[in-house]
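pinging the channel bc i need a second pair of eyes. not urgent but kinda urgent?? the chain im working w is below, pasted from the shared doc
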Amino acid sequence: MQFVGRPRLAAELDKHGLHLTDFHGADQRVDRGRLRFSTTPSAAGNADLVLVTVKSAGTAEAGRELAAVLKPDAVVVSLQNGIGNAEVLRQVLPHHTVLDGMVPFNVLNRGCGAFHQGSEGLLAAADHPALRAAQPLFDLAGLPLELHPEMLPVQWAKLLLNLNNPVNALSNRPLKEQLAQRAYRRCVALAQREALALLDIAGIKPAKLTPLPPHWIPLMLSLPDAVFRRAANKMLEIDPLARSSMWEDLQAGRTTEVDWLNGEVMRLAERLGRAAPVNAKLLALIRQAEQGGQGEWSGEALLAELRAAT
């Protein structure tokens, strides 16, 4: 396997190697001498299968860099947040097969080459012969790949779950601690209900990625804490240290992917001639936090702010 990434990460892995852990207790180290990591796209020139995992803002640039080096028969899979990244790649890679994909689980970069999977789920991608042939390789890597005939319902189901990301980032708490507090959960429920109403109008039925159907999740999130703990054991199977990638971006001073999460809901509303005030407010609050504004909200204060927007 060949990795292609930024010089910052290359330097980190060259110094520390790669350390992979998960909340089930898996612990694997890869010595720096065994890593194949390049900072130039040309390293992907001989690849048959390319997995794109850059932040959504860098999708077009990554696609243009790949266009200059990829073999004509290379297959590209977008394993990114949001709905439209594969389409962005198709526009700059018109002669290649580009497939939609999804990473359902949370990964926290702990620094010094350590990456921790804090929740469960299986990689997903659009069904294609090249991916069927590659499934044993994913199994061998410990990352089973599920193939779907239609990815849009799967992507929207993941995006609905990811509407917790801005709430988690603004809470400045680990995911498990944040989800244990009803006020924060009700914030997520407001954003999800708004998105689900728009999806109903658009005729898009999100896939069932959790034990509960998507339309039932806001109801579950709104339950009192004691009832939620008893009813949502599966939902709370999260590593105590896990946090959202949006929290990680805010802490690092990076631009977040809020435009590709809450922003997707807002764009859907615009196409339907509707509004999405809750998601618009969450996007605005994250933008303010990116600029040094209030970056830590209590659940009650955040809930009041979102309710005032409706």
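so The chain has two domains: 3-149, 154-309. and DSSP finds 14 helices and eleven strands in the chain. — does that match what u expected or am i reading it wrong
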